[in-house]
Amino acid sequence: MIQLLKFLRPYTNTVVAVLALLFFQSLGELYLPTLMADIVDKGIVNGDTRYIISIGGLMLLVAALGTSCSIGAAFLSSKTATAFSRDLRGKVFSRVESYSLHEFDKIGTASLITRTTNDINQVQQVMIMGLRMMVSAPMMCIGGIIMAVSKDAKLSLIFVVVIPVLAVLIFSVARKGLPLFKVMQGKLDKLNLVLRENLIGIRVVRAFNRIDHEKKRFNDANRDLTDNAIRVNKIMAAIMPMMMLVMNFTTIAIIWFGSIRIDNGNMQVGDMMAFIQYAMQIMFSLIMVSMMFVMIPRASASAIRINEVLDMVPEIEDADEIKEGNDKKGYVAFEHVTFYYPGAEQPALQDITFQAGPGEVTAIIGGTGSGKSTLINLITRFYDVNDGSIRVDDVDVREISQESLRAKIGLIPQKAVLFTGTIAENIRYGKENASDEEIRHAAETAQAMDFIATMKDGFESVLAQGGKNVSGGQKQRLAIARALIRKPEIYIFDDSFSALDFKTDAKLRAALKRETKDATVLIVAQRVSTVMDADRIIVLDEGEIVGMGKHRELLNTCKVYREIVTSQLSEEEIA
């Protein structure tokens, strides 16, 4: 929690203003019981109406000023806390953006969403309460004790018994609640995970008629969270009745012993009433502290989870000395590359060596799990190699800044991802300042104009979240257009033609050949028809290169490639 307070530095002036307002409010509340005692002892006893009116007017003025200070403090503390959470969310989001894929896998998407929303909200609520109570509660408690002792030192001995009892009660409850709050945030992660999987996979759930199964999964996770929340809230709810019980017994003790001292002539009635007011202020300040102790355990658990995100060091970072590429633009070379996924016993890729240059089309083909997409992810430096090196423009990718490396690459991922917005905005995602003419040219090259033209608003047609209102093939073509508009040095097509029919595939590859003639093109594909015209075909099997060459060469020299071809093409087509 303390580590997160550094984000409050920009709001130091506002925090100081809140503390000052709360200081004056507390002074006023401490002064009121003394004025009330004066009215009882001097005004009412002596029958002095003028004195009662003057002191009463002063009490009203003090109360009005205290109310104004309280309103101002509440406004400024709320404003500061919400701005704090806004900045903290921005920091968390920026930190997550710097993560490699391994860090995403380590924490989990559902947990990252919870930490960015619910956890930060918990910290925000405590910040609001803390700013309002961090001054008023201690000052009311300490000031109340001082004023009570000044009224009657002997009667104040009651607090010697009461305050330790309250402190023990608060500490005991908080000690039991903190571990449960940590568990509850984890269970909230689990609930979000189940809900997210169900929403993303709703088509699969319905297709396999597993709705009842998913309901049971959700209900189990929901019930687990609910049971834990009920348990922890029962513990925390015990604070208030215990506090009220102690407070009422304290009042009884004050009246009992105070009446004896009044009877003996050692105390005035007004002083006893003021003493009761100070006792109530002390008790309520401790209740305010107890409320903080109710909220702090959960916020502390949330703060730890937020710090885990902020403190996690990305595995992939830019080198201390950044190098720039030479004249070999678009040149890609793998030199004895071996890569293991974190925790894996077997390498996903082993001893991979090949080169690709501008004007060449290099195709990568192989069975499922052979390492095709992994190889692509290493070029874009989503992961770092364990052995060997990957060179782009004759510089190791680990020595190039991630921003400049990815600016050289136009990636069309295996799963086409579109964002909420218009078609033009999605294509312009590849180049922010692209003109309308550039957008149209990219769409024509990607063979997307045929379905864009049929839409009511053309390029201004709005896509739903994830592109749900267009087909798989249409999404792939828009993703290709997004990469084309960038005009990069290197094009990477990661199985980007799988949802296209053969006619559209052929037209698209012919158009791409004209558009990418000066760039390096890497194609990952399952279809033989997509790769057979490539300048170089790399055949992967279980993470190793088992063949490299052109289509005709590999038919004669590579068993794996020949098996793939014969499984897809007839003998006439092969001939």
Q: Could you characterize the architecture of this molecule?
A:
This protein has 21 helices and twelve strands. With 575 residues, the chain is of the alpha/beta class. Strand 9 (490-494), helix 17 (502-515) and strand 10 (520-524) form a beta-alpha-beta unit. Helix content is 63%, strand content 10%. It has a six-stranded mixed β-sheet with strand order 6-9-10-3-11-12, with helices on both faces. A four-stranded antiparallel β-sheet has the order 2-1-4-5, with helices on one face. Helix 6 (157-200) packs antiparallel against helix 8 (211-237). It folds into two domains: 3-311, Up-down Bundle (ABC transporter transmembrane region fold); 332-574, Rossmann fold (3-Layer(aba) Sandwich).
Quickly list its features:
single chain, 575 residues, alpha/beta, ABC transporter transmembrane region fold, Rossmann fold, 2 domains, six-stranded mixed sheet, elongated
**Roughly what percent helix?**
55-70%
- Percent of residues in beta strands: 5-15%
Structural class: alpha/beta
Summed up, the domain count is: 2
How many DSSP H or I helices?
21
CATH architecture assignment of the largest domain: Up-down Bundle
Give the overall average pLDDT. 83
CATH T-level topology of the largest domain: ABC transporter transmembrane region fold
Short description:
This protein has helices at 12-46, 49-97, 101-107, 109-133, 136-151, 157-200, 202-207, 211-237, 239-263, 269-311, 372-379, 402-407, 423-427, 436-445, 449-452, 472-484, 502-515, 528-531, 551-557, 559-568, 571-574; strands spanning 332-339, 349-356, 361-366, 387-392, 395-396, 409-412, 421-422, 462-463, 490-494, 520-524, 536-541, 544-549. With 575 residues, it is α/β, with parallel strands linked by helices. Strands 6-9-10-3-11-12 form a 6-stranded mixed sheet, with helices on both faces.
